[in-house]
Every structure is written in C-alpha cells, then in structure tokens.
C-alpha cells in the first residue's frame, strides 16, 4: 500500500497524520519486519480511531474505509479538482495522470486487510469495513455531507475501472465543487497559522424566505438582487436596516437554503475581523462559487475605525472587488456609524450649501451599499397576522383565535413589544407547553 500511496501524483500531497499515509506505513513496516507486533497493533488502533472519529462526525456507515477514501478525494484541492470545479474537463495529458491515480484508489477501495489482521491477531479493520453506526443518522449535524459522501462512495466502489471513477468524480466536482465549499454552504472565518481559514457551519438551520411572515416587498428585493448575482448579472451590495426582531438576519440566512444548490455560499465575518477582508477576498475570487460576505448587526461607535477597512474593500481600493463576491449587512442603524453634534464642528456654509467633512465621511459607508432595504416593526394587525400564521404551523396549539391573540398581547407586553421575533418566541413557548401535555 505504501508504494501505491507514493505513486500518487495529483492526489499524493498529504501530511504524515493522514490516515492513508499512516496505513501505508503500517503495511510497509509489517512486510519489512521493521516494527514489532505490539508497535504495529498500536498504530493500527490509532488509524481505526481516526476512522471512527470521522465516521461519528459525519454519520458514515457500512464501510468507513471506503467512505474515508471518498471524503479524501472530494476534499483534495489540487490543480485538476479545482479546474473541474470551474469547467468540464477537456481531453489532455492531465486526464491520463488523474486516471492513473484513480486506478490506485480503485485498488485501495478493495484492499484486503485479512493477512495483516491474521498476522497481528486483530479484527478491527474488518469491523470498520462492515460498520453499523450507533444511534439514528438523523441526529448527525452533518447529514447532508454524510448522504453525499456515502452515495458517491458506493458508486466509486462499484466502478469497474478508473475510467468510470473518473466520470463519477468529475461529475461530482462540477455539480458540488471541491473541498469544504463543496460540502458546506455557510462559514465563519478565523485567522490561523496559514492565514484566513474557513470554519464550516454544520447546523445553520433550514429556514427559507417563505418561512418569514410578511415583509414581502423586502424579500422580493433581496431575491431579485441575489438571483441577478447568481446569474452573473450586475448586482449590488445590500444593507438591511431597521428595528430589532423584524427578520433582517433571518432573511439573509435563508438565502443559503434558497440558493445554496445554485453555488451560493455565505461567509459570516465579525466587525473585529474586517482587517481580514482583503486576504479573505483573495482566497475566494478564484473559486467557482458566488460568495455573500455577511456582516450581522453592523454598527460603529464614533471612535471606531474598523469601518475604513470595509470602505476600502467596497470601493476605492487599488484592487476591485471580484464579480463573485457581494457584501450583505444587517443593522439597526440606517447610517451604520453613530453620529454626534461634534461631527458638525467642521460645517461649511457656502452658496446656501451646508457641508461637513466628518458627517460625509460617516455617511459614505452606508452609501456604498447599492440597495438599502428597510425592515420596520409590524403594526398591531401585522403582528396578529404573524402570530396566526406561525400558530397554524403547529397543530398541537389548540386555541381559538380570540384566545391566541389575547395570549399574544399578554406575552408581548412582557417581552419587548410587537415584532416578528416576539411572535416567534411566543409561539415557541405555546408549542412547548402543548407538546408537554
């Protein structure tokens, strides 16, 4: 196995902690006699634990070895896989090199561990190739990833030759992509030893725009701009502003469920990370996805200067923002930056025009969002409509309309007034009580 791993070209770059590398080293040392039986057993157990941890995390089942190999293939970012993400592979010499690698993987998919197990007196490798997970697969956070990997894994294992594996894998790259962007739709960002890193969000929820009651014109504006962006047409950065609890954040988050299968990815970044925007965009601009960089609850105090990083990215920098990236933000402030009367100290009066450089500087950030969508608190009737609609989604709530709205009135008086968030919290409380009975 180690010789086969060493023969890999495009898929051969891996760390010594990789399961495939470790397993190859074990078999090599077993055949050469360069390690004791006890040492080899210990190393096999470490590999099996890695496979079990991976299987538990992603809900793999039946054959953890084959699922691991599939996971490795679809997350390996190399010159071929990244090219396939952008365009259909053309005939060329690189295809022959890839097929040579895949012939190695075809053998690895069906590797017989029985001789090694017999020599070491263990059975754990056979057990992980006939594995039955404990618990319900529905409880796994990474359900979508699990189903994709297992489905492709079975197809690759059944392939008769490298040619079939090539067709299956390239089709996956074209439809889903490669690496974590091919597996997930939403991400956080952190700064690591190798620069900007993307942390996938596995439990981002399944809400869609239709689940948000009301605000139809606002949702339509958001849809139209996002669909233009995904279609490669001209689109704008968007600022959703207005009262708390009105659904601004929920609207943006729902987009990944509406359009994730069309290549949209949501990258959430926090205010203290704005200095990472330039390296972040540099990593995203060459990928074949449409990225929305999302900033939730965006606002700045008078003495904060992080907004200058954002301004430089949106407009005015030496390098223009790539066509595959938009910025969406939510805020309770329409102008984002807190204004004070001191901002007017440099007010100029000329030809009946009043101008303040400080105020212009602060207002210019919001102006760089091409579309501003206002979300205001609902009036009493709209609040009742939201409550009734949400209640209709919970058949366990058995209250008359009059009882429901009376309870809603009492709830909102104690919980922050009328808003979509208050209505949702009220219905959650009612449903919880009903389910308990």
What does this entry show, briefly?
By secondary structure, this protein is an alpha/beta fold. It is 51% helix and 11% strand.
Textual characterization of the structure:
The chain is α/β, with parallel strands linked by helices and 437 residues long. 51% of the residues lie in helices and 11% in strands. The protein has 19 helices and nine strands. The longest helix has 22 residues. The protein is globular, with a radius of gyration of 27 Å. About 1% of the residues have low confidence.
Helix/strand layout:
Elements: H1 2-7, H2 19-32, H3 37-58, H4 64-75, H5 79-86, H6 93-109, H7 114-120, H8 124-128, H9 143-158, H10 162-176, H11 180-183, E1 186-192, E2 195-200, H12 216-230, E3 238-242, H13 248-259, E4 264-268, H14 277-284, E5 290-295, H15 307-314, E6 325-331, E7 348-350, E8 353-355, H16 357-367, E9 371-375, H17 380-392, H18 401-414, H19 420-436
Parallel strand pairs: 1-4, 3-6, 3-9, 4-5, 5-6
Antiparallel strand pairs: 1-2, 7-8
Which features characterize this protein?
single chain, 437 residues, alpha/beta, two-stranded antiparallel sheet, 11% strand
Q: Percent helix among the residues?
A: 40-55%
- The string of secondary-structure elements, in order, is HHHHHHHHHHHEEHEHEHEHEEEHEHHH
Strand order of the largest sheet: 2-1-4-5-6-3-9
Helix/sheet category:
alpha/beta
Coarse shape: globular
| Computed CA radius of gyration, to the nearest angstrom | 27 Å
- Number of DSSP strand runs: 9
Number of helices: 19
Sheet having the most strands:
7 strands, mixed
Average pLDDT score = 87
Which band does the percent of strand residues land in?
Answer: 5-15%
Query: Between the first and last Cα atoms, what is the distance in angstroms?
Result: 59 Å
Regions with pLDDT < 50 over 5+ consecutive residues? 352-357
């Amino acid at each position: 196995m180690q010789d086969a791993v060493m023969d890999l070209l495009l898929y051969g770059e891996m760390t010594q902690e990789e399961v495939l590398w470790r397993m190859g080293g074990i078999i090599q040392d077993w055949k050469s006699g360069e390690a004791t039986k006890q040492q080899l057993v210990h190393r096999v157990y470490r590999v099996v634990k890695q496979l079990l941890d991976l299987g538990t995390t992603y809900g793999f089942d039946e054959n953890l070895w084959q699922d691991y190999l599939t996971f490795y293939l679809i997350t390996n970012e190399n010159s071929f896989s990244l090219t396939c993400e952008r365009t259909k592979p053309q005939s060329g010499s690189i295809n022959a090199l890839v097929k040579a690698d895949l012939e190695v993987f075809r053998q690895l998919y069906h590797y017989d561990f029985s001789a090694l197990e017999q020599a070491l007196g263990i059975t754990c490798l056979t057990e992980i190739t006939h594995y039955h997970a404990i618990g319900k697969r529905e409880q796994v956070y990474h359900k979508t990833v699990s189903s994709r990997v297992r489905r492709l894994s079975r197809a690759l294992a059944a392939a008769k030759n490298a040619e079939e594996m090539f067709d299956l894998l390239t089709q996956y790259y074209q439809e889903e992509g490669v690496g974590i962007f091919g597996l997930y739709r939403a991400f956080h960002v952190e700064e690591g030893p190798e620069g900007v890193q993307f942390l996938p969000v596995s439990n981002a929820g399944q809400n869609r725009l239709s689940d948000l009651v009301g605000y139809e014109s606002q949702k339509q504006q958001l849809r139209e701009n996002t669909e233009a962006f995904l279609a490669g047409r001209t689109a704008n950065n968007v600022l959703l502003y207005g009262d708390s609890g009105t659904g601004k954040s929920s609207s943006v988050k729902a987009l990944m469920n509406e359009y994730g299968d069309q290549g949209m990815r949501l990258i959430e970044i926090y205010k203290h990370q704005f200095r990472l925007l330039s390296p972040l965009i540099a990593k995203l601009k060459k990928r074949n996805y449409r990225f929305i960089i999302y900033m939730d609850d965006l606002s700045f105090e008078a003495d904060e200067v992080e907004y200058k990083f954002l301004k430089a990215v949106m407009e005015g920098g030496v390098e223009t923002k790539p066509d595959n990236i938009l910025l969406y933000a939510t805020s309770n402030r329409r102008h984002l930056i807190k204004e004070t009367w001191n901002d007017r100290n440099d007010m100029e009066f000329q030809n009946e025009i009043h101008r303040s450089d400080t105020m212009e500087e602060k207002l210019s950030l919001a102006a760089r969002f091409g579309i501003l969508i206002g979300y205001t608190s609902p009036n009493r009737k709209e609040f009742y409509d939201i409550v009734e609609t949400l209640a209709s989604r919970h058949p366990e709530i058995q209250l008359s309309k009059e009882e429901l709205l009376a309870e809603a009135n009492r709830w909102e008086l104690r919980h922050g007034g009328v808003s979509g968030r208050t209505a949702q919290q009220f219905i959650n409380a009612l449903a919880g009580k009903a389910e308990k009975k």
